[in-house]
Amino acid sequence: MLTLGLSGGLSFAHEEMYDIPKNFTHDGAAVLVEDGEVVAGIEEERLNRIKHSNKFPIEATRFCLARRGVDIDQVDRIAFYASEEYCNALLGRVRLLTGGALPRVDARTLLAAKLGEGLGRRIDRDRIVFVPHHQAHAASTYLLSGYDDSLIVAIDGSGDFLSGLVAVGTGDRIEVLSTFPEAKSLGNFYVAVISLLGYGVFDEYKVMGLAPYGDPARYRAQMSALYTLLPGGDYEIHRDRVGALAQQIEVRRRGGPFTQQHRDVAASLQEALETIVMHALRHQREVTGKSRLCLAGGVAHNCTMNGKIAYSGLFEGVFVQPAAHDAGCALGAALHVSLAEGALGSRRRLTHVFWGSDVGEDAEIEAELSAWSRFLSHERAADLPGRVADLLASGAAVGWAQGASEFGPRALGHRSILADPRPAANKDLINAMVKKREAYRPFAPSVLEEDARELFELPPGQDDFPFMIFVLKVREDRRSVLGATTHVDGTARVHTVSQKANPRFHGLLKAFKDRTGVPALLNTSFNNNVEPIVDSAHDVVTSFLTTGLHHLAIGDYIATKRDFTWEDVATLALQIPKYVRVDQIRRFVAMDRAATVFELRNTYDAGLRVRVSPDVGEALMRADGSRSIRALLAEAGADDPARARKAVEEIEGLWSQRLVSLRPLGAPRAAAEGDGRWSQRLVSLPPLEV
Hints:
It is built from 23 helices and 28 strands. By secondary structure, it is of the alpha+beta class.
């Protein structure tokens, strides 16, 4: 039995749906499950290149079908990650917010129509199954835990008018015991408080990283006023009191400096979250008698909380779904339906999530690298792990792209940026050359599974932490050895690597250990600060060329940047991504003067406006991916060398922000790239087939 699980929004990448709140439709994904086994899975963001994509997962769906070599007509069930009632209510809200721009249509019809349009055929509505959101979360963790008996807890912001559930798993059966209403949402509680720190949705992990720099006692009383612990593991959240806390601190503006006040608020918030969760878990452990725990939901990405649970001794084993956020609901929905249809198969413990796009065979990689010969040199390495280990030991930062991409938010050794974990300065080096992020945020260590206990204080009875989702203690005598990956509180977000699940990355770690005596590397996701983790070979090369990375290891090849000029960049073909639009506007630029200006906007963030020069704007209006920047500028009348150079340098800056796409002439386009000119203001929906 083939089941396709889906999560995500209502519009395609080129369509605008600004009025749908991101917390309803973020993290789109598709997962194809065959008789209970995952055969393909990828987040839509990896393909359409929109972080936390709130778009319909059509590219992800196409990928899953292609990887299995099947047509949509061969899929038995299409599982969506929310209840039908909730989806219909959401559509009603969207129709109201858009002033009726969305046709009056039910969720089942719309889902069949969107999928049908994207795949070019009619979809049978009866094959669609709506899976309650938190039941999808629950299935995603329990059915892949390897446990036959477990407590299951899903905690997030919201979904299906709820914010979580408690269930028990016994054999192949999941029984829901209770649910949490939105009023008790720990995810929304966390976001409400971090707004005082200049952060919002998707920034929760940043505050988790900031918390160890603060003293939770300073605002413990004020934070305690925001919740009440009740008997029976219950609790109440008082979000209406967050304003009172705002009166007692200096609210940080986004991008502003951090004060000790902000650090202390982060610490007290993290403590509050852990207090509430442990209060609920202790009660459920007692009343259910379950000695194992399965966690999912966005709050389960709080790795510090997970570590505290693992160390608490409350449970003999703790399994956290590595894609605990809403993308994991695509996986859970497919598994839930497979279970209901009696087609689950075996329930082995999840050992890896390498279900995405392959970076390519040797010939494909060679072709991609050769196309960029003006910009980089490359060679095939007979001993790639050994060569890369030498580079890392000598102080280089290396982009590492191998095999199939990871499902979920973590780079687990297939799409990673790597560095020597020993010098503390390497943390600042990676931040400066690639991430451009807050300096306080830690990087994770990847370690040989067999050597993990030498470096970390692992909880009793568990030696493998393959998904980088637990913060654990670094042994005190090894913290200086892991200077770049040990956080200020002596912890690290540990990623253990087994030879069986990830042989090539294991081989690299072993080679680095042979040279340095240290069986670990600094590992962070291969992307810059404005893009999702890289997926294709083209993504890999683009990220490499627009960051300060020293070397690239892709497949069996090692690449190094050449010194290239603006004239080299001018030879590249210019393309507008599907999610970008160019607006040409006549507006006043001074009290007494109007002018024509060009702005770049996108289809998912109404607040984004990037002004570009007239020369660049004219070039972008003509860009269709088939002509070079130089040719487009010449057409726009900017063929004077000084003027052309300025425009090319501006385009290169837009490239680093992923607002334009560049590639050598004649190279194939990526899925995220459009057909050139596109300017549209209204919501666009296709005719619906009912």
